[in-house]
Design a protein that fits this description.
The protein is mainly alpha-helical. Helix content is about 75%, strand content about 0%. The protein has two domains: about 1-195, no CATH class; about 250-330, no CATH class. It contains twelve helices and no strands. Keywords: Coiled coil, Membrane, Transmembrane, Transmembrane helix.
Length: about 350
């Protein structure tokens, strides 16, 4: 049964792992290219470490760490998006330079053609008065012909285009795909984080096993004269535990008698239980984790939760010492609640 449960748990994680692995692999291809171009041979370390840090921060459940994870993911995504969009940006910049140079060249040729025409008019006027202006007139006429031909060629050529709309659309699609891959990786790692939360432990009704309730250890090799106690049956162990729960020790009996002396009334126990449940809900933790962090016995929490039922049945309930310890722990925890 345990093997089936483990297999089912791994199968539930498999889709998230596949999405996470594929998205990170494709993003890293572009990220390594980007960081290697600007950082050098160690660019692959920058890309990989940045992505690992982002995933680790997303796996945490604290709000502050996930805010830092958002910044890290944006930084990690900048490299791949820049690598994909770089051809488009370069084409736009080159097209703007080409267009600016073309316009400037047309303007200069137009001005030169106007000057040549003025010079030709002057030369012809001077040639009527005296000879010797034939050569300047011929040179000016030849240059004017060249300028007119170059100007006509520039005007007939359409302005340079950066990219066709299909190429631009392809670049935009690639950038959007990278963003979707990054979001998918974040959703996958947060899903794995939720699946990795420990399952709340069931309420423990019995106390810690005493030395008399433990199964005997292997005494082989300690000597032949050592008597090996027989292993008690399951019914005997269960009866022993129930018998010990039904009859508390003298100190615990004194603690329980304090409940009727005004130290803890019924309303105080109810308020303490409500404060404990509110603390667990606000912290998003389980009873098992609370007991482990604060050194509290799970048995005491179980007795606190079932205090009314056990009191009505005349059975043993939580002791005054455990109540005082829980009250001090809860009072020391900052949370939005009324004082117990």
């Amino acid at each position: 049964m345990r093997d089936k449960t483990t297999t089912t748990r791994y199968l539930a994680k498999l889709p998230a792992l596949v999405v996470l692995t594929g998205a990170i692999a494709l993003l890293q291809l572009h990220a390594i290219q980007f960081w290697t171009e600007f950082v050098g041979p160690m660019g692959w370390a920058w890309a990989v470490l940045l992505e690992v840090v982002a995933l680790w921060l997303w796996y945490q459940r604290q709000l502050a760490r996930r805010a830092l994870a958002l910044v890290t993911s944006v930084l990690a995504l900048t490299g791949p998006v820049y690598t994909v969009c770089e051809p488009l940006v370069e084409e736009w910049q080159a097209a703007s330079h080409v267009d600016a140079g073309r316009e400037l060249r047309i303007e200069r040729l137009t001005q030169e053609a106007a000057r040549l025409e003025e010079s030709l008019a002057t030369f012809r006027d001077n040639s009527e008065a005296r000879a010797g202006w034939l050569t300047p007139i011929q040179e000016a006429q030849a240059r004017l012909t060249e300028v007119d031909a170059e100007l006509a060629e520039l005007l007939s050529t359409p302005p340079a285009e950066a990219m066709t709309w299909r190429q631009q659309a392809l670049v935009v699609m690639q950038a959007l795909a990278l963003i979707i891959f990054q979001l998918s990786a974040v959703l996958a790692i947060t899903s794995l984080s939720r699946m990795g939360r420990p399952v709340p432990a069931p309420a423990v009704s019995g106390g810690p096993t005493s030395s008399g309730d433990r199964l005997p250890e292997d005494t082989a090799g300690l000597g032949e004269d050592v008597a090996v106690p027989s292993t008690p049956s399951a019914e005997a162990v269960t009866f022993n535990l129930e018998h010990r729960l039904a009859k508390p020790s003298m100190s615990e009996t004194n603690d329980e008698s304090e409940l009727s002396k005004g130290h803890f009334e019924y309303a105080d126990i109810v308020a303490l239980r409500q404060a404990l449940e509110q603390l667990l809900e606000e912290r998003g933790t389980t009873q098992a984790a609370f007991c482990r962090d604060h050194g509290v016995s799970p048995r005491d929490l179980s007795l606190l939760r079932r205090h009314e039922a056990r009191s009505a049945a005349g059975e043993r309930t939580i002791s005054i010492t455990a109540l005082e310890r829980l009250a001090s722990i809860i009072d020391a925890q900052p949370m939005s609640r009324a004082a117990t």
